[in-house]
Automatic annotation (TrEMBL):
The keyword Cell division does not apply. The chain crosses the membrane at residues 110-127, 133-160, 247-268, 288-311, 323-344, 350-372, 431-453. Pfam families: ABC2_membrane. It is a multi-pass membrane protein. InterPro entries: ABC2_TM, ABCG_transporters. It comes from the Eukaryota. This is ABC2_membrane domain-containing protein. It comes from Nippostrongylus brasiliensis (Rat hookworm). GO terms for molecular function: ABC-type transporter activity. Its main location: membrane. GO terms for cellular component: plasma membrane. It is found in: Membrane.
């Protein structure tokens, strides 16, 4: 009856202190001292506790054995606590140890690879470099490729499905926490409304700052009816410098508010994460991925709004491909800032992260390519530019802007575009390299942040 209910859309939570007929249960979740001691099938549970030194005789009820192993024995609490901790630690490290304890994967694979290595070696022993020998060597290399593929593939297909139930549980936990933190972001006016308003206001400010139009207020309604060409910065020497300044300012505005927003709000999760992790509610990885994914919509829409407002008001080159590429660049700049903020918040406390981030950002900003010509930087400081997403984002914005100048400017040429890029030590061929570097920065920052958060949370317990 319980299994029928589980197969329906209902959720069944059943607490059984002692269940003689343990075969009616198909999945077990054992907890002790606020930690998960085991999750999986009853048969795997018996094997797991046997590996931990708690064997169950054939005539003994496994449920009684498990309860006894996870119970606090009166007047012997210290020994019981140590035993429970050892069991929970063994389960948490089970994925690594399980592969080496499992003869179906460890011994068989090692023996199979050793035997096949000897067989291939004897088959092609001391092959001479004749025409036939060269063909034999090529055949041996191809055979090696196949032997490295087929046994590995079918071994995984045989053994990995045993983890299906645990993977399903982690998937549902992860989806729940993604929904939880996404909802938290949109319900929090300090993060949602303030960020959207800040980006809209800054977009209007930058647009008005570089707005080159006479009698703009009188012609505003005419603009709505006709076109946005009236808001186009003239391509004089001063106008070009203004456009480059606007692009660099966009890069900074996609970074600073985003980074310090993360540094202000993310550390508030730390104490809750420590408590819920040590209570066995979820893995750190589930929380980390959920929190990152929940930030993506919020720290994407606001940046797009600001960039689109500026593109319209400044009159930047706006072919469809350039607008799409500018959208991609703004997304990567903002995500680099998010990843850096998450990394700093995960590794350090709020006060330390905020005090360290400021000087680091100043160095990255100075090597961004606008405030100083990067080709003239001294060698002892010039290397910083390769760690600066300011430089990669600004260069990508500039290349995208001058790749095609639309409008009725008949005097413009590709040579002039190259001269502008060369003035800032930029190269057109670096565009996709800049895109890849910002993507790599994002992933590396997230990885470092995850490692730091794991160490902090585990040591806090």
């Amino acid at each position: 009856m319980l299994q029928c209910n589980v197969l329906s859309t209902e959720t069944v939570v059943c607490y059984v202190c002692i269940f003689p007929m343990n075969f009616i249960v198909d999945m077990l979740h054992n907890s002790a001292n606020g930690r998960t001691a085991f999750y999986g099938t009853p048969q795997r549970c018996i094997e797991f506790f046997d590996d931990c030194g708690h064997s169950c005789p054939d005539s003994y009820n496994p449920a009684d054995m498990i309860i006894h192993a996870l119970a606090m024995v009166p007047h012997d609490e210290d020994a019981s606590r140590s035993s429970i901790t050892a069991i929970c630690d063994a389960f948490e490290s089970g994925y690594t140890l399980d592969n080496w304890r499992n003869p179906a994967l460890a011994r068989a694979k090692l023996m199979q690879k050793i035997i096949m290595g000897l067989f291939i070696g004897l088959l092609y022993l001391q092959t001479p470099l004749t025409e036939l020998g060269i063909l034999n060597i090529m055949g041996a290399l191809f055979l090696l490729t196949g032997e490295l593929t087929y046994p590995t593939l079918f071994g995984i297909l045989t053994l990995l499905p045993s983890d299906y139930q645990l993977v399903v549980k982690e998937y549902h936990d992860g989806m729940y926490y993604i929904f939880r933190y996404t909802l938290d972001n949109w319900r929090n006016p300090a993060l949602a409304r303030a960020k959207l308003m800040q980006k809209i206001v800054m977009g209007l400010f930058i647009g008005l700052l570089y707005l080159q139009v006479s009698n703009a207020l009188q012609q505003f309604f005419l603009l709505i009816c006709q076109s946005s060409a009236i808001f186009k910065t003239p391509l004089t020497e001063l106008g070009i410098l203004n456009i480059m300044g606007a692009l660099f300012l966009l890069t900074g505005e996609l970074t600073y508010p985003t980074l310090f927003g993360i540094l202000t709000l993310l550390p508030s999760d730390y104490q809750l994460v420590v408590k819920e992790y040590h209570d066995g509610m979820y893995y750190i990885f589930s929380y980390y991925i959920a929190r990152i994914l929940s930030y993506i919509p919020l720290f994407t829409i606001d940046g797009f709004l600001m960039v689109y407002i500026c593109y319209w008001m400044i009159g930047l080159s706006s072919s469809l491909s350039q607008i799409l590429l500018a959208t991609l660049i703004s997304f990567l700049i903002e995500q680099s800032a998010v990843a850096f903020g998450v990394m700093m918040s995960s590794i350090f406390t709020f006060h330390v992260a905020a005090s360290i981030s400021g000087p680091i950002l100043v160095l990255l900003l100075l090597s961004g390519g606008f405030l100083a010509k990067i080709s003239t930087l001294p060698s002892y400081i010039g290397w910083v530019q390769y760690l600066s997403w300011f430089r990669y984002g600004f260069e990508a914005f500039a290349i995208n802007q001058w790749s095609h100048v639309n409008g009725d400017n008949t005097t413009w040429s590709e040579q002039r575009s190259q001269e502008i890029l060369a003035h800032f030590s930029f190269k057109e061929r670096n565009f996709w390299f800049d895109i890849m570097m910002m993507t790599a920065f994002t992933l590396i920052f997230y990885l470092i942040g995850y490692i730091g958060l794991c160490l902090r949370v585990m040591n806090a317990g």
